[in-house]
Prior knowledge:
The chain is mainly α. It has helices at residues 6-31, 39-44, 67-80, 85-95, 101-120, 132-143, 147-151, 157-179, 185-199, 203-224, 229-246, 249-255, 266-280, 287-307, 312-331, 346-370, 374-388, 400-417, 424-467, 496-504, 521-526; strands at 474-478, 511-515. It has a two-stranded parallel sheet with strand order 1-2.
Amino acid sequence: xxxxxxxxxALTTKFNTVVIVIVFILIFVQNxxxxxxxxxxxxxxxxxxxxxxxxxxxxxxxxxxxxxxILRYTYFNYLYWSGRVVCTFLVVIFLATPLPIFCFKLVQTxxxxxxxxxxxxxxxxxxxxxxxxxxxxxxxxYFLVPLKVINDSSMWITASFGYLWLSLTSxxxxxxxxxxxxxxxxxxxxxxxxxxxxxxxxELLGLGFCSAxxxxxxxEYFLQRKINRQKAFWLLSASCGFLLLLTAPGNFARLDTVxxxxxxxxxxxxxxxxxxxxxxxxxxxxxxxIILAILILFLLAxxxxxxxxxxxxxxKFLPTILFGLLVFYALIPTGILHYFGHWPALKYFVLFxxxxxxxxxxxxxxxxxxxxxxxxxxxVAILTYNLGRLLVPSDVHRIALPLYLILxxxxxxxxxxxxxxxxxGYLTALCFIALVYWCYVTTGxxxxxxxxxxxxxxxxxxxxxxxxxxSVKEIILQKFDLSFNSSSPWKKHQYELIWMxxxxxxxxxxxxxxxxxxxxxxxxxxxx
Length: 528
């Protein structure tokens, strides 16, 4: 028997602990500089979606509301605006109660940290059950999500609940669904409730989630020729949540406000949306997404080629095909591919159709070879999620976040399943790039945070003066860098000022405006 080097084990344990602590700190520090923005003020005052046409008998001022008011507002939102009752309830719990915003930041840090640890958890039993290389990989990939996507999701409180929190939960539940064993009744009921909650999260996520569970269940049935009743019950729970979401009266009321969809049939909506969907998928914030997808397919294709599964000849050519698609993708913005002539959308179909076909093929090969439906379920989630985008009026940046998270999860799963050797040099370079980008993003939010805090103090002081009977005619706030914020209250989103006044208890007749230069973080740091 080989002797165990206790000193080496101790050093490894300390190093892994240091890595875990650093990851937690980086996540926490970035989350600390989230500020109230945009719809946050509307939900905090229970006034978002409230109008003369759809009034509600509540005091839509301040941000200190009781649970009964919150429940009534959630029900109102379900009737007149959206079926996302879970997201609405969570948002107003954190924004419309005396609960400090710090609690939101701490909970979000814990959720993201747990998710990254979950992905890096090894199958080995024992105290030290995390692979620090995988943890570094997934952490680096998480911090490399484009800034526009971050602004519109994880660093915006209202959007975080539906697109970050529930995406993380859904992916963990998909993994758990594939690997779950028999549970006690109480644990099973609690997990069943979680499946219902995620199914009722948002339309695209709920669709992808339920599709992934169905794929996993059918795959298991194909292998074992029997249905796991516990998993079938979880799928039913998620489907009921999704059905509750889709059938909300508020969805139909809200759809009437979308002029381009009003009076259109399903076929007309799809015909109008698919060219926009295809073109929007090559925007700059999707560039890392496409590159990451291609690299993951490269990795999986190489692993399957080495194992000579199914079509050996095809497997050998897949890396070449993927490299060709990568070059093809790089050429699309240049205009070189003008020879597509009267079929400009054809190049997008070549790219995305090729990637999806290869992804389905590789995931299927993995399934048949390893008797494991998890990877195929993740591919199905991505496929159905993107198909659901055809029915969304516009492609906002936050829609891309769940796709990034699923790809990060897929990368961790493949590396772990095939025991891929992550070379220290490549991993170090990736972590260095991610750390530099983290510094840039966090610096931008730090600078904006100081401005938001100063503006908040001005509004609070003005509210105190008004309360004491002093005259206040105008409140002048400082502009911030829109590159690190989800809204522009002095430009496109001036209606945010109405919610801000209600939040700080400032009368409507008092003018609130922004002054100063609308400059970038670099100009604020280093001057002109």
